[in-house]
Write a structure and sequence with these properties.
The protein is an alpha+beta fold. The chain contains 3 helices and 5 strands, in the order H-E-E-E-E-E-H-H. It has a 5-stranded antiparallel beta sheet with strand order 4-3-2-1-5, with no helix packed on it. The termini are far apart.
Length: 155
């Protein structure tokens, strides 16, 4: 009889604990860079087709191939030192949440080839300038001559 009571108490405790258990997932997406496209709140990575590289938003690092090895760095390699991050198209990878987006590199480089562009992207710097009453004409020191810094060229 004691055994039955112990089993009943154990089952009761187990059931009550299971009912109150919560699963908490904390995903830190990080703060997007000023050159990042506006409108994507839950994204971990961008793919930059023109330089065939990735950007890890939470780690604030670029990920690129160097002699067959994927490298993480705070800056792009020297061969892309003149690349315009504000003007270049960024593919938002909102369907990938692992730590190695380059596992899909062969697909990405075909689907999002060099020169791939689905249209104008407003970046955070443009949005901030627009919100503050300043109009960014898209002319950055790095050679970007965009379309007046407004989405679809409209005010």
């Amino acid at each position: 009889m004691k055994t039955v009571k112990l089993i009943a108490v154990a089952l009761f405790l187990f059931a009550s604990t299971a009912n109150h258990a919560q699963v908490s997932i904390n995903v830190n997406f990080g703060t997007p860079p000023q050159w990042g496209p506006v409108g994507y709140s839950q994204v971990s990575y961008y793919y930059l087709p023109d330089v065939q590289s990735y950007y890890d938003i939470s780690a604030q690092q670029f990920i690129f191939l160097n002699n067959g090895v994927w490298i993480r760095s705070r800056s792009l390699p020297n061969r892309y030192r003149n690349y315009d991050l504000y003007g270049g198209y960024k593919v938002v990878l909102n369907d990938y949440h692992g730590s190695r987006p380059y596992t899909h590199y062969n697909e990405h480089k075909v689907k999002y080839y060099k020169g791939y562009n689905k249209g104008h992207q407003q970046n955070y710097k443009m949005a901030a300038n627009h919100d503050n009453g300043h109009h960014d004409n898209g002319n950055h020191d790095n050679g970007n001559h965009g379309n007046k810094g407004h989405k679809n060229g409209k005010h």
